[in-house]
Amino acid sequence: MVTIPKPTQGDALWRSAAGETADNPLGHVAPLLAAAREEFVRQAVQGRGDRAALARYTDQTDRLVRQIFGAAQDLTDTPLIVCAIGGYGRRALCLHSDLDLLIVFQGAIAAPEERAASALLQPLWDLRLAIGHHVRELSEFDRLEMGNPEFVLALLDARLVAGDDRLFAVLLERVRDATAHHVERLDVLLSLVSQRHVRFNDTLYQLEPDVKDAPGALRDISAIRMMRSIAADTFDGTVQFDESRLDRAEDLFIRIRSVLHAQSGRNMNVLKHELQERAAEALGYQGSHAGKRVEALMADYFRHARAVTRSLASSRRMIAPAVAQIERRRIGKSLDVAADGVRFADSRATPMPELWIEAFRVALANGCAVSEVALASIEQNIGRYAVDDFVSTEDSRQQLLKLLSPRAGLYARLSEMHECGLLGCLFPEFEKVHSRVIRDFYHRYTVDEHTLLAIRTIESLRSSPSSERQRFSGLLDEIVAPQLLILALLYHDVGKWRDEEHVSESVRLAQPMFDRFQMSDEGRRVVEFLIANHLEMSRVAFHRDSEDPQVVARFAAVVGNTDLLKMLCLLTLADIEAVSPEALTPWKEELLWRLYVDTYNQLTRGYADDRVEKHQAGLAVLLAGRPEEISTEELSRFISGLPRRYLALYGLASIYRHVRLSRDIHPNEVHASLEKHGDVWELSVVTLDKPYLFSNVCGLLSYFGMNIHRGQAITTPDGLVLDVFEFSDDEKFLAQNVGASTEIHRLLQAVVAQSVNVPTLLRGKQQSVIYRHRRMLDTIVHLDNQHSQRFTVLEIVADDALGLLYRISRTVSHQGCNVELALISTEGTKAVDVLHVTKGGRKLSSTEQFALKEALERTLEGAHEAD
Amino acid sequence: MKLIKSIVRPNKLDDVCEALERLNVSGVTVTDVRGHGRQKGHTTVYRGREYSVNLLPKVQLEVVVSDHLVDEIIRAIIETARTGEIGDGRVFVLPVDYGYNIRTGERDA
User: Fold this and answer.
1) Which of B73, B77, B55, B56 is nearest to B64 (CA)?
2) Among A386, A427, A522, B46, which residue's Cβ finds the most Cβ atoms within 10 Å?
3) A585 interaction partners in chain B (CB closer than 8 Å)
4) Are B68 and B14 in contact (CB under 8 A)?
5) Contact in structure between A439 and A206 (CB atoms under 8 Å)
6) CB-CB under 8 Å, A547 with B47
7) Are A193 and A220 contacting, i.e. CB atoms less than 8 angstroms apart?
8) Min Cα separation B87/chain A (Å)
9) Which parts of A490-637 are beta strand (E)?
């Protein structure tokens, strides 16, 4: 290997290249180059800088090299050749592309050979060509430099430009021998492709794409062809492959690139906003104004880049060693999992739409793709179906929503659905932002891709969270219906199909989707809130003084409850990260997290401080919507004294139900309703306060084997108690016993009337279930007198266990404390309970706090304090 | 010429930038930073566990201006970034020997 130094401007040759002397050695070649370039520019600006133009320019460059070669050859007796490698080797030289040359000497390189190489290269430098040169002895090709992967791959395109063709034949043979193990070559190729894609955040949907290097662009086309050439036997007839698709894509990209080179006067391959108009005009795109022409160009660009990306993905799957081992296996009656992904078992039959959804479900479950063949089949037939064909039954609607659950592969599968047209068919509102380009200073991707990348961020929190992201990942695990978060993300920017303010338009466009999916009021409320407020958390975190408690309190009032807060926090994180790789800095991430923590604390610890007032926001809606049998007075009486967030927490139907339950309540009476929502039961209890009430109700649920997941327990200043518990029927008591519901009501009444003693009731279960000990995380008991004006806030984080809440609340009662309010949640295997307690109607003193903390820690350690 | 380096609350960034624009300050460099001065940070509790928050998020703005504009610009920064609470930030003024325009290679007057 020899290094030929590039001349400086002071060198004699440089001066001669400028044509200053009569015996200018470049005098005969410079006009040749100038003419070739002039011709290229003329073709390029007319949109005709295609493969043929590149080939012509390559040929003229070859001629130029050959002319210089003649003089250089005379300086050495050692036979030498000059080869074009890389893009130049493929005869795809663009106007300002690097000229990749390989100079090979048959023998050792000494001073005469170095002079010969210099004599070849320096005139080219003097012509201001960008040269990528490699000077080698033939013997160096006995073993290839695998540490220089670009060079190894460039050699595969080697083409003789000047010199002895027998020497070139020997060279080719040695290269072939050295790279005989095609697995090695493929590894090199795949690794280079992956590294390159990472620079573009692994997405082709760049608003300013690099037509050479970006995913789906020219280098990927070369990579696909190389893969197919290196591993020809793997591809032999097994995968449908449309070479003409690659040709069409390549033709467009080359013509765009030619315009970029011609217009910028340099090796510029990024289709920047300002060059998009010129490229669109040169390539003859139609439109009433420049913006429309650019839209047409970019839509075409993305369409072709998608085709390339799909071909590349399909080719990669075929040569991936792990996948190549997979034997085709049948899933159900109609689907196969093969090496290239999920296929329809009968490739000739036109599959039904429900099978399409099933194919993606199977792909997600098996961690594989949907095969190119299946995608092509869907793409071909998608026009025959409308969205209603996919959501006609409750089961199909639920299947679709379940498909959106964040997990590994979701982004890739949604992208496949998007590319074959299925996603747009299922969510026609999302189709409105297909390849939508919005030019601003920050966004780097099209609107649809921005959305899918945001979903990718959520997916990564579940599948491979980095250590810095563990805290956000924990939030995702705690969300009850994460598919609603994904649905909200899918719709958060659909309003950008038009140029005006997009948030309200996104909310508007979500309404038909809610109707189609026949979503519950609660589901609608969640998704609509997230879409309508998707900019709110970043606005407060980055543009307001989030250290100011009032700012946090106002934000908490907007959010209303911790579930929505967690979802909004994750949506905000994902939305910012999907803007560009630089958008979400650690600094912003920290600000976002701090706002989350402060708001969470505000929502849980300050929960009971704000009471519903006369002119409370939301009250008017509640009053206006009340059923006739509930009077304004009755409603107002019930609401007054409840925490303000009660209104944000429950829908209208739930509130009216609570009002009915509160009617004519007397001491020792309980009014309750038990309802099933999906897999979860909800018990609403209204009664009048008394000692041990909360722990007794919890104990009763434990007695029936109910696992309490979430709940609220509220006591008004008048002593009215409203407890709402969500629980699962782990022991199938409700499922398997006809009179189970009546029995629960009967015992509930008896417990409240104190005619049944809960500890006695539980005695039989105590050792087996209630005190089952399975410690996984450190128990935290924290007491705080600062956050709430009237209560001591007790926060407990512990391993969830059946009966845990009973034990906690009973210990609190044993200590003479009253539970005024309880916020109960279970997050995975972790119970997070926040109780607002008083003793004798006031906050606990330090001594009382200490005693309660000790007692609770003993209880949670399993010392049976609660007995 | 002077380099005016100010460290302000993140939410005051837009206000300060607008104030600088009104004074025809042509260039500003903004950096997200973390640190503390007298506002030493605090302890926060999340789910019963205490965390110390020692370094607080701030924004640093840097502008290079002619000597005769320094006082006016400092006044504008202080007026717009002030809340009156601890943690409002700091302004530093440093001498600048030369400045060059990279595109043209010209030295600033």
Assistant:
1) B73
2) A427
3) 32
4) no
5) no
6) no
7) yes
8) 10
9) none
End-to-end CA distance of chain B: 9
Highest-scoring range by mean pLDDT, A266-275, A470-479, A570-579, A620-629:
A570-579
- For range A229-246, the mean pLDDT: 71
CA A645 to chain centre: 32
Amino acid at A235: F
Assess A796–B contact: CB distance below 8 Å, yes or no: yes
Give the 3-state secondary structure of A101-143: EEEEECCCCCHHHHHHHHHHHHHHHHCCCCEEEEEEEHHHHHC
- From CA A491, how far away is CA A430, in angstroms rounded? 7
Give the pairing of strands A131-137 and A99-105: parallel
Residue numbers in A near B48 (CB within 8 A): 780-782, 795-797
Query: Measured between beta carbons, which residues in chain A are less than 8 angstroms from residue B46?
Result: 597, 600-601
Closest residue by Cα to residue A685 from A726, A728, A717: A726
For residue A516, what are its two tokens?
């189609």
Nearest to A543 among B11, B49, B56 (CB): B11
**B33:A587 CB<8 A:** yes
Taking only the tens place, the pLDDT of each residue in A195-220 is 999 999 899 999 999 999 999 999 99
Q: Which of A636, A640, A644, A641 is nearest to A610 (CA)?
A: A644
Of B10, B48, B83, the CB nearest to A797: B48
Question: The pTM is what?
Answer: 0.76
Q: Which residue of B has its CA nearest to A601?
A: B46
Chain A residue with Cα closest to B88:
A545
Nearest-CB residue to B48 (from A544, A545, A781):
A781
Q: How far apart are CA A80 and CA A114, in angstroms?
A: 12
Contact A543 B87 (CB under 8 A): no
> What 3-state DSSP class applies to B88?
coil
Return the HEC string of A689-711.
Answer: CCCCHHHHHHHHHHHCCEEEEEE
Distance CA(A538)–CA(A559), nearest Å, equals 13
Question: Each residue of A450-508: pLDDT tens digit?
Answer: 999 999 999 999 887 787 788 999 899 889 899 999 999 999 999 999 888 899 999 99
Distance CA A318, CA A341 (A): 9
A783 — phi, psi (to 5°)? -115, 145
**How many angstroms separate the CA of residue A785 from the nearest CA in chain B?**
13
